[in-house]
Amino acid sequence: MNLLHSIVLISILLTVSATAISHHGYKPGNDHKTKMTAHDYCEVVNNGVMFYKYNRAGRLPDTDVPWRGSAALKDASPGSQPDPNGDGDLSKGYFDAGDHVKFSFPMSASMTMLGWGYLEYTDTIIKCGASKIWLEDLRWGYDWLMAAHYAENRFAGQVGEANADHAYWGPPELMTMDRPTYILSDTAPGTEVAMEVAAALAICSMIFMDSDPAYAAQCLKHSEEMWTFGDTYRGVYSDSIPDAQSFYKSWSGYKDEIVWASVWLYKATGNKEYLMRAVADYDTYNIGEMAQQNSHDWDVKAPGTALLLTQIFPGNATYIKDIEGFLNWWLPGGGVPYTPGGLAWIRMWAPARYSATTAFLMSVYGTNGDKYTDFTKKQINYILGDNPQQQSYVVGYGPNHPINPHHRASHHSLTDNIMSPVNNTYLILGSLVGGPGQNDDYKDDRTDYVKNEVACDYQAGFLGASAFMASIQ
After folding, report:
1. Domain residue spans of the chain
2. In CATH, 42-471 is 1.20.1050.10
3. Catalytic residue among 149, 296, 406, 411
4. Averaged over 233-243, what is the pLDDT?
5. Exposed e or buried b per residue across 424-458, where buried means at least 16 C-beta atoms within 10 angstroms of its C-beta
6. Which pLDDT score, from 0 to 100, does residue 269 have?
7. pLDDT tens digits, residue range 126-138?
């Protein structure tokens, strides 16, 4: 009997309602409406790192998520041979969000941010007891990135045709559609992807340098080769993979990723040639200007690049101006709109992930107790339920939390019907949903993927910021 059919279905009776608050913007005087809660941030971290296990593809090595089984075992690069288990070389990695496509750009960006969070807050993550799973999450993603780099100047930029994938509503274990592989190459370049993969794997080499030096060396080799590939063959990845354009088009181009990857490779190797390139390209490409009035996300790396350069060059006026210009724009009164309840709300699609990722950058740059870490505290606590509606945006956390995220595996419809069953069968505890509208309006409705989808990139910045909160608790 199939594992998925042998497990007793969990009936979740909790329902969530949300009442919209109609104000034009956040005012400090509204704080009295918010009930403050003492949060267990280690609990948040431990629950949150499980998200990636909910979204694993491939042959699963454990039963940490008993209702997930092996899936996408035939995913492969061109001409590859299956291993003895019958798995394709691209079978591992992560499903992007509530769907089951493997989009390499957000996947690599997620591994970069998840790895950066681990580098910044290693001691806290260990203290919370979350390091084992956090490292497993990273390695599962890093393994896929290296497998996708299957030949010189070749990289599997996407697995799965997006529209065909999105037309199916069921668990990944039961998928039957064809899953084509889209290749980036010297004639179909993807500089953003190549450089983001280089950044992610540079971090991999730093994380595993002591515990597994052979693996770290493997990561670094792929990192440097991908940097060279991206630098030599310039091109916008979503032009080479048109199927990605409706989902993860590269709006900002690849110049920010070039500098981003160069900085991370300098940090991993100490090779000043990478740093010289980063400094020169930062000026040439106006990365500081790109960082302003924006977000740090899967597409835009300029803010994080400016922050890293302030660490390498303490006291440098240009880099300080650029990162503080970005961070100050996110503070109350700085430019980013706020909801009446206090969420920094930059745009409609999943505003909580932008706020959480910015909160992580604030924690890295700031000092506990300053205006930057104060932002981190308020934004993460808002997400956890310290808001006028006492609405948590983390599945399973707090008294009023989502139970119906837009996530096919946890909904577990066996009839290809997003409405049946009524409630998600399985609770993906610790997962950050998209977040509220600009007036704090929210409904726990899985058909509303703008507010209720979960994703690898949402979770990465949120976990980094949550680890900071645990570090000061």
Report:
1. 42-471
2. no
3. 406
4. 98
5. bbbbbbbbbbbbbbbbbbbbbebeebebbbbbbbb
6. 98
7. 999 999 999 999 9
Q: pLDDT tens digits for 322-373?
A: 999 999 999 999 999 999 999 999 999 999 999 999 999 999 999 999 999 9
Annotated catalytic residue 453: yes
62 is known as an active-site residue: no
The one catalytic residue in 99, 173, 299, 386 is 99
Whole-model pTM over 0.85: yes
Token couple for 72: 């996408």
Full strand arrangement of the beta sheet holding 154-159: 102-103, 154-159, 181-185
pLDDT tens-digit readout, 160-203: 999 999 999 999 999 999 999 999 999 999 999 999 999 999 99
Distance, CA of 302 to CA of 326 (rounded, Å) = 10
Pairing of strands 181-185, 154-159: antiparallel
- Give the confidence band of 86 by pLDDT, cuts at 50, 70, 90: confident
Per the annotation, the verdict on 412 as an active-site residue is no
Band (82; pLDDT cuts 50, 70, 90): confident
pLDDT attached to residue 26: 31
Asked if residue 112 lies in contact with residue 471, where contact means CB atoms within 8 angstroms, the answer is no
What pLDDT is recorded for position 35?
A: 60
Catalytic site residue from 196, 224, 444, 457: 444
Active-site option among 224, 386, 453, 457 = 453
Q: What is the mean pLDDT of residues 41-62?
A: 98
pLDDT (tens digit per residue) in 408-464: 999 999 999 999 999 999 999 999 999 999 999 999 999 999 999 999 999 999 999
User: Is 173 one of the annotated active-site residues of the chain?
Assistant: no
